Every structure is written in structure tokens, then in C-alpha cells.
């Protein structure tokens, strides 16, 4: 997957990792919705 192929409105689920090493899967749109951009 190339970041250039995705948008903030994407419903594609991807894995995210926090600074403490925890991983979770959520759609890009949902992550941006709650974090902001």
C-alpha cells in the first residue's frame, strides 16, 4: 500500500501503532475523524 493511494475519507482498514507499541486496526476515516488532520 502506498500512502499516495489513500485519502482521509478512505474506509480502508489499516493497522496503527502508538508510541508505546500498541497496535490496532481501524478505518483511516475513523482515525482522522477523532484525531484531526
Quick tags:
single chain, 37 residues, alpha+beta, two-stranded antiparallel sheet, 1 helix, 22% helix, DUF4379, Zinc-ribbon domain-containing protein
List the helices and strands and how they pair.
Blueprint: E1 13-17, E2 23-27, H1 28-35
Antiparallel strand pairs: 1-2
Protein model, in words:
Strand 1 and strand 2 (23-27) form a beta hairpin. The protein has one helix spanning 28-35, and strands at residues 13-17, 23-27. It is globular and about 25 Å long. The protein has one domain (3-35). The protein contains 1 helix and 2 strands. A two-stranded antiparallel sheet has the order 1-2. By secondary structure, it is an alpha+beta fold. It comes from Neobacillus rhizophilus. This is Zinc-ribbon domain-containing protein. Residues 2-32 form the Treble clef zinc finger domain.
Count of runs of 4 or more consecutive helical residues: 1
- Give me the strand/helix succession: EEH
Q: Helix proportion of residues, in percent?
A: 10-25%
Main sheet characteristics: 2 strands, antiparallel
Could you give the order of strands across the largest sheet? 1-2
Shape, principal axes of CA atoms:
globular
For the secondary structure, the number of strands is 2
Q: How many independent structural domains?
A: 1
The average pLDDT value, as a whole number, equals 82
Amino acid at each position: 500500500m502506498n500512502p499516495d493511494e489513500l485519502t482521509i475519507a478512505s474506509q480502508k482498514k489499516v493497522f496503527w501503532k502508538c508510541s508505546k507499541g500498541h497496535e490496532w486496526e481501524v478505518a483511516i476515516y475513523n482515525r482522522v475523524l477523532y484525531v484531526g488532520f
